[in-house]
Amino acid sequence: MTSPVTFLRNTWYVAATSNEVNDSDFLSRMILGEPVLIYRQQSGVPVAMRDRCPHRFAPLSRGKRQGDSVSCIYHGLSFNAEGQCTHNPHGDGRISERAKVQVFPLVEQAGFIWIWMGAAEQADPSQIVDCSKLLSAKPTAVATTYIHSQSNYQLIADNLMDLTHIDHLHGPLINTHGHLSPQTAEVVELGGSVKSSWQWSGDTIELMRHHLADPEGEVRNTLDVAWHPPAIFMLDLFVYQGEVCVSVEDYHLLTPETATTTHYFFASTRNYNLDDAEYNAQHIAGMRHAFATEDMPVIEAQQLAMGDEELFDLKPLVLPCDTGGVRVRRKLSKMIEAEQTQPLAMVDNR
Amino acid sequence: MTSPVTFLRNTWYVAATSNEVNDSDFLSRMILGEPVLIYRQQSGVPVAMRDRCPHRFAPLSRGKRQGDSVSCIYHGLSFNAEGQCTHNPHGDGRISERAKVQVFPLVEQAGFIWIWMGAAEQADPSQIVDCSKLLSAKPTAVATTYIHSQSNYQLIADNLMDLTHIDHLHGPLINTHGHLSPQTAEVVELGGSVKSSWQWSGDTIELMRHHLADPEGEVRNTLDVAWHPPAIFMLDLFVYQGEVCVSVEDYHLLTPETATTTHYFFASTRNYNLDDAEYNAQHIAGMRHAFATEDMPVIEAQQLAMGDEELFDLKPLVLPCDTGGVRVRRKLSKMIEAEQTQPLAMVDNR
Amino acid sequence: MTSPVTFLRNTWYVAATSNEVNDSDFLSRMILGEPVLIYRQQSGVPVAMRDRCPHRFAPLSRGKRQGDSVSCIYHGLSFNAEGQCTHNPHGDGRISERAKVQVFPLVEQAGFIWIWMGAAEQADPSQIVDCSKLLSAKPTAVATTYIHSQSNYQLIADNLMDLTHIDHLHGPLINTHGHLSPQTAEVVELGGSVKSSWQWSGDTIELMRHHLADPEGEVRNTLDVAWHPPAIFMLDLFVYQGEVCVSVEDYHLLTPETATTTHYFFASTRNYNLDDAEYNAQHIAGMRHAFATEDMPVIEAQQLAMGDEELFDLKPLVLPCDTGGVRVRRKLSKMIEAEQTQPLAMVDNR
Fold first, then answer.
1. Smallest Cβ distance to C57: which of B165, B182, B305?
2. ipTM for this model
3. What is the pTM of this model?
């Protein structure tokens, strides 16, 4: 289904977690409304191409691996990792100039495989959001997960930029017991990013309390969430008790599947229980459960209520807690508009 | 999904049966294409409001009861039974002029909860169709039920105004054995209503026969169905045997859910077996079974065959039995058109 | 759902296999987007009419058989096998000029029931594709089957006209081990039909090998597929070993259900094992399995990838193997266009 919806294209999205793509299988995933085939070359380096044979549009992901090439199941055309046809079993075997598949720039970094769906010549890996915390973390102190959401990614972005929802929507694990909503979050822009910050003193959230030297003692909390285009959110919670700081640093990475569905990737690191693999697994499972069972039902109900209308066209009531999210929507909207009005820089997607 | 389909708005529809709305839970039901939240206040008085928070459109029905108020699950805004925001936990807690939810006039009467989806200032409870027979009936001699139909409500209205279908579509319980079709029903207009009437002598329907003094004896039957706008039908069957009359008086109350789906409410009273609770339960279950398994499959197949086309645009063959139903369609159509061309009287639905 | 898609109408399609229509039941099947009722008269002669009562559009297939007539379940109108209303139980029983159902010309021939969805006066049974091989075959040497496909019929036509796909898509039973793709098929037009032909020497396909006098011996194969409008394909494989020829002659008959779904009928005959009923059953089951599990998933994925776009609008890469299929698409397209621009010859479908 083609949609008039536009996405930011000249940017890096997460296409998959590293462990979703193994040595032998194909992964087929729709990204920005386009079917994408992802697989690892024999060197281990992943590659992504349009999951659609240029001959009769059969999905290449139904085909066969031949070394680093893909052979279409329907008529046997083979394409190498550059998307170039390398074998045409038909007639005299001549390979037409047009016998190629669009390849998407791909970078594997920090446990994720990043994809560039825009003009390939503009793809610069140095622009990938810095996830060095994930890279440097011990394997027992970092974990990633994936959730599929039946909602536009901007509804999830709103959710993440406005953390006051935690106290209303979430259960005891991460509830701050009302510390967030009364505050007007500090919203600052740093280069192209937008950051919302909250602070409170007294107790902390249940998730952190048990890792304090004195679980009943007084603490000071700082909570930040920073948006990086297109839809990457770094959420940091620091809990200070005396000289000691206990912290979690999380990444929420949103990739539009279609106008009304989203691939939601999540990674979490921390500075405590660093060698506890069992805790590590419990922690990521607990966070995933909270997002999937508490946030998603409400966000998906928002999507149903809004249909294909734009948020601002529905004239929502604006609250103080919306400042960060509205700022992100406006900036992203301008970036998409700027990209759309520069036709020369746009990729030919067919 | 917004639809170009128009409904009569300045009128009373049944939103629910009284026993569908208990003391503690929320009922969320789409009416005329709009999500409506219905619940009882602590006084027992029911209230209805748009099931959509004005902030970010989360369904209020996912939220929490706080006395007579509703608190949105997503960001904690509270709304009282008048739809006014009474608590904003964010920032300085100021409550904007715009922080309100549309409330719909609601009246509980005769076992039903009636809703007015039009201009609230025009809502006059005295205009609710007189259901005093339901009110005055003994509890063991009145029953209500509900059927969800995958069809436009006017296809069900056609079905009810043309009772000749009974002999063709229905089984032995209510079949008249061919007495209806040969007659040209008498169709009269009484004020704003339209009534079709049939009469026959000899036997009666199986449902009534067993309640006659002489089940094999000669009787005279009168069968009436009266339409009241927008889609309320009062069906009376009187079976006379000598000086005695055995009767059932039924109400069919249709509320559009969407352009192609309907909430079908039904109530039945009678003048025999008045103290027989078991018969009462069997009677309503039997009627519900006939509608759900005999009428609905055909009406829903009609809907599929017609898609979103208007009945008259498809140039149906018109039979003598259609007189009442066509009269109702024409009158309702004029009422809707009149309402649509009086923009000042229309409610702002957003 | 009405669709702007056009089909060739003045032509014969297979509506059903003979054994799908028994002596007592109704068959309701959508053909070219229209619901069609098919049943056998008491003489055994099948009849087809629009499966939609002209009164209120209830499906006639929900009604009752009365001799050779159909009585509508909703209001009891009866229609004879000519589609003429013969009984109106309503009022004075007068039968309107307009009380008729469109009847479609129908011919039973060679195990199939053929339907003409165009202008009835142009329906000439002598134009039905010659299937005399099916007629003359022993009952133990001919079999038919049916597959429902979630794809436009032209995608299946492409599949059949380009048999090089066999070596890439299909398993060991019918794989030629690479003999087809290197050849440029000979494509010839014969009257209104288009035929693609391949030849090879050496071995043959597994399906045929076991029926040779010397299964390991050298053979010569000829493989032809001939398209007849609208979407009938005769596929012949002849395997020559010395003086002896072992052959299968198959019919693939495609009938559009809607723009994106197809009724796929298949019949197979052969010149070996003529009296082996068990082999006959295994053979048709094996072929059906290959089409349903190997071809259909890819063809249905093509349909999903293409949505409602036309093949050539998507600028497919054209390979030597496409010659026959492209020729068929162009000829069919011209026939449909010619028919559409002759409005006088077109049937009134309402």
1. B305
2. 0.92
3. 0.93
